[in-house]
Amino acid sequence: MTHSVQGRSVVITGGSKGIGKGIARVFAQAGAKVAIFSRHGEEAELAAKEVGHGAFGLPADVTSPGALERAMEEVARRHGGIDVLCANAGIFPAAKLEQMSSADWDYVMDTNLKGTFNTVKAALPYLKTSNQGRIVLTSSITGPVTGYPGWAHYGASKAGQLGFMRTAAIELASHGITVNAVMPGNIVTEGLAEAGPDYERNMTASVTLRRLGSVEDIGHAVLYFASKEAGYVTGQTLIVDGGQVLPESLMALS
Ligand code: NAP
User: Which of the residues 39, 48, 115, 246 could staple to 62 if both were Cys, CB 3.0 to 4.6 A apart?
Assistant: First the structure.
């Protein structure tokens, strides 16, 4: 499976750190030609250097259709097209409903949900001309499956991505493009480390496999959806959470 992305041109939004950088590493090691986007071009470049295998980084804010179009054009010029789009960029600032402002709501929706739409639109002309285009969204268990205080807007954006995916999968099928989504549970990233050891300990206790996920755990699931072997899979989701959503209560794990 991993060999079938060899030489394919892959764009990863939000690839300068966290899950996106893990996805980039997994694809680069599988022989893909990787381009990393993030708001801060220099951080995207640094991440690309770390990933190696000829990866490069570009500045592209997913809330800016123009910036995305310019970046996709540059990737297509340098890599001879775009075959795989990993729409991964996302933010998760917490705000409880009573304190959440309209601006808080818009910021999360504009980045996570409209940003997904903007990203797919900008990549589409290139994916259409690819032999077997692939779109893989990074959603979450939060929203589509679970809730968490402070993340009403975030959960709505992540569930919204799945609604978008299902119609996009139908519309883009005639171009040979598949559209799927991974739904991560709690993944160890730089951001999680900032949440502190108590948060990490409590989260680990609620995971069936008794460990938090790694960014590579998500990267491998994305790699599957992007492979040629997954060509008959579209409009689907894959939860990658170590069984976090399985137990009916914490007692089930004791
Ligand atoms: P992260 O470590 O904070 O990284 C976020 C990435 O997105 C960075 O590269 C950031 O770079 C980029 N980004 C943020 N806003 C952007 C924008 N407007 N335009 C372009 N790039 C932008 O986050 P993460 O934990 O890896 O999360 C990545 C994705 O996984 C998100 O969609 C998140 O919802 C999802 N997810 C994460 C977890 C988890 O446990 N970590 C669980 C479920 C789902 P710049 O700041 O340079 O733009």
Answer: 115
CA distance 55 to 52: 6
The residue from 107, 148, 154, 224 that is catalytic is 154
Over the stretch 26-68, which tens digit does the pLDDT of each residue have?
999 999 999 999 999 999 999 999 999 999 999 999 999 999 9
107 is catalytic: no
Answer yes or no: is pLDDT of 1 > 70. Answer: no
Domains, the chain = 2-253 (3.40.50.720)
Cα(60) to centroid of ligand 1, in Å? Answer: 13
pTM above 0.85, yes or no: yes
